[in-house]
Amino acid sequence: MPTTKTHRIALLFNANKIFDREVLAGVASYLSGNRIFWDLFLEEDFRLRLSGIEQWRGHGIIADFDDPAVAAALASCRVPVVAVGGSYEDAADYPPGVPYVATDNFQLVKLAYEHLIDSGLRKLALFSLPEAPENRWAQEREKAFRALLRGDRMEPEVFRGQCTRAPSWDAALERQVAWLRGLPKPVGVIAVTDARARQLMQACALAGIAVPEQVAVIGIDNDPMARMLTRIPMSSVIQNGQEIGRAAAQLLTRMLHGAQLRDTRILVPPAGINALASSRHEPARHPHVMRARHYIRQFACLGIKTGQVAEYVGISRSSLESHFRQELGHSVHDEILRIRLDAATAILETGDCKLADVARKCGFTSSHYMHSVFKRELGCSPRTYQARLGEAAGAGFNRDTPYITSASPPI
Questions:
Q1: Mean pLDDT throughout 39-67?
Q2: Is residue 216 within 8 Å of 189, Cβ to Cβ?
C-alpha cells in the first residue's frame, strides 16, 4: 500500500475526441510507470462538464484548454492546474500563469506538407474548419499552412467549409465537391482532422475524383474510428498525445510538491505519419490504370477479383493486366492484395482481434491465406506484426523529447 498522500486530481477532457483519449492514456502511463497513486475524477460518461467544477474539492487539475470555456472556468482556480491543448504562433495567446503542454501545430502541418511534397505533388490545399473560439487550434494550423506555402513561394488555398450537422449535411457535401472540382489536379490536401479528411474522401467518391491520383488526402489525429469509416485507407499525422499526457502529469506532480511552474510551455512534436493509400500519389499516365486503382482502393476489401475491375474500367482483363505491368510493374491482383494488406495492418493496430474476422473484413478468402500474404510481403505472421507494433508504440513515445519554448527548466 502507498505510504505517501493520495492526491485527488480532476481530468477535464472530452474522451470522444481521439486527442483527449490519447492524453488520458499518457496520464495513466505516467502514473503506473512511476507508481504514483492519484484518486482521479472524470465524468462518468467521460464527457467534459464544467457545471459545479468550482465546488470540487481536490488537489489539482489537468484540463483541455482548447475549449475556451474550460480556460474561463479555471481562471481563478485555487488548486494547481496544468493546461493541455494546441500550440500558438503568438505567445500572448497562451493562458497567462498556467503551465501548458501543447501539440505542436506547426510541426503537425509541416510533416503532412513535406509528405505530400515528397510524393511529387506541387499543388497543395488545406481543408479547415469555420473560424470559432473553440476552433482556435484549426486556425493555428491554417497559419502554419500559409507560412509554409509562402516560404516556398506558393499561393495558399484554404477551404473552411461549414460545420456538419444533419440538416446541412447535403449542402456541406455539395460545397466540398464544388471546391474539389475547382482545384488544379493533381493536388494534395491536408485536412486539419481525420474527421475532415474522411468527409473529403467521401466527397471525392461522390464526385468521381480519383484518390490519390487526382486528390491525395492526409488528415491529422491517426484516429482508428475515422479510418474504419473510409473505403480507401487514410493517411494521417500521428499526434504524440500520450507523450503530452505524460508531460502534463509530470508537471502536475512537481507542482503538488511545491514547484512554481507558471508560464512553463512544452511543445510536443508529432510522432510521425501513418502513410496509407489516400496519400500515396503515384502519377498514372494511363487513364485505365488510374480508374482501375480508384476502384480497387474502394472495393478491394469486398472480395473483388481482377475480372470485376476490368469490367468496371470497360476493357478486357488481358488489356488491363498489360497496362498494369507496363506502368506499375505488377499485376492487378497484386494491387488488390496490397490494399487488403494495408487494411489488415490498420485493423491489427487497433488492438486484439480474431484473425478470422480481420481476414473476412479485408477480403481475404481465409485467415490462412492472409497469414501467407503477411509472411510473403512483410516477413512475419499477423500476430508477430501486431506484437512489433506494440513494442514500437511503447518505445516510440519516449524517444521524442519535448522541446521547451520558455525559460522554465525542463521537466
A1: 79
A2: yes
Sequence letter at residue 254: R
pLDDT tens by residue, 323-354: 999 988 999 999 999 999 988 988 888 776 88
pTM for this entry: 0.79
Burial class of 50 by CB neighbour count within 10 A (0 to 12, 13 to 18, 19+): middle
Return the C-alpha cell found at 194: 481525420
What is the C-alpha separation between 391 and 383, in angstroms, rounded?
A: 13
Same-domain check for residues 89 and 154: no
The candidate with the shortest Cα–Cα distance to 129, out of 167, 160, 159, is 160
What domain count does the chain have?
3
Radius of gyration of the chain (CA): 23
Give tens-digit pLDDT for 185-238.
999 999 999 999 999 999 999 998 989 989 999 999 999 888 888 888 899 999
User: What confidence score (pLDDT) does residue 284 get?
Assistant: 63
Instruction: Name the helix (H) or strand (E) containing 180.
Output: helix 169-182
Give me the CATH number covering residue 72. Answer: 3.40.50.2300
Given this model, what pLDDT does residue 163 score?
83
Structural domain of 27: 7-102+241-270
66 and 114 share one domain: no
Neighbours of 86 (CB within 10 A): 22
pLDDT at 37 over 80: yes
Are 116 and 235 within one domain? yes
**Relative orientation angle of helices 382-399 and 332-349, to the nearest 10 degrees:** 60
Whole-number Å distance between alpha carbons of 227 and 347? 9
Domain assignment of residue 324, yes or no: yes
Please tell me whether residues 166 and 150 are part of one structural domain.
yes
**Residues 209, 119 share a domain:** yes
Answer whether residue 406 is part of any domain: no
